[in-house]
Design a protein that fits this description.
Elements (H helix, E strand, L loop, with lengths): L15 E13 L4 E12 L7 E4 L4 E8 L6 E3 L10 E4 L9 E10 L6 E4 L11 E4 L21 E7 L22
Parallel strand pairs: 1-10
Antiparallel strand pairs: 1-2, 2-7, 3-6, 4-7, 5-6, 8-9
Length: 184
């Protein structure tokens, strides 16, 4: 197994590689938080050699983790500034090289999230509605959800955002999608 090249990640992306990310979040403007879940489809890069998945995480409130519908043992290790706290998810026995697993994480962002900026209505041009935007560079994606927060790992993604206010999200839409402004 090759060593990680990126010193800005705590993840073990040389052992597991994210292939697809599915995120489903409710935007809570009152609490200034995203609440929901993320599913990381990970591919084993080893033949049953890695017994744990390590993801980058920073100030995320994690409630539940599942691997293919089973709740594994997991641990959020000590905070390591400025990189965050590595999330260790245990995979007893590992899996075969090339095998895909789904890691589902239920979570909520916190007030210490460095990737989300929340503006009050008074701070916006029309002074009527709150506003939120994200900036995940350089290593801030890990404060929205645990991930392999490195440019060495790229994956396709599917996002579902629910909000009481209209939402604009970037990315090239593929397939069917629907939006109903003003409704959750």
């Amino acid at each position: 197994m090759a060593a990680n090249r990126d010193p800005s990640t705590l993840s073990n992306y040389s052992a597991w590689r994210t292939r697809h990310t599915t995120a489903s979040f409710k935007i809570d403007f009152e609490e200034k938080a995203l609440k929901g879940s993320v599913i990381l489809q990970l591919e084993s890069q080893t033949d049953k050699e890695s017994n744990e998945i390590i993801l980058d995480s920073r100030y995320v409130d994690i409630s539940t983790i599942r691997i293919n519908s089973t709740e594994p043992k997991w641990e959020l290790k000590e905070y390591n500034a400025p990189l965050g706290a590595p999330l260790h998810i245990y995979v007893p026995g590992g899996v075969a090289k090339g095998e895909l697993i789904d890691v589902a994480i239920d979570l909520e962002t916190t007030s210490k999230c460095t990737a989300l900026q929340w503006l009050t209505p008074a701070q916006t041009s029309n002074k009527k509605h709150p506003y939120m935007f994200s900036q995940c560079q350089a290593i801030n994606a890990r404060s929205i959800f645990p991930c392999q927060d490195t440019p060495d790992v790229k994956s396709t993604f599917t996002f579902k955002l629910t909000s009481s206010l209209p939402v604009v999200a970037s990315g090239v839409p593929v397939g069917d999608h629907s939006a109903t402004p003003g409704e959750e």
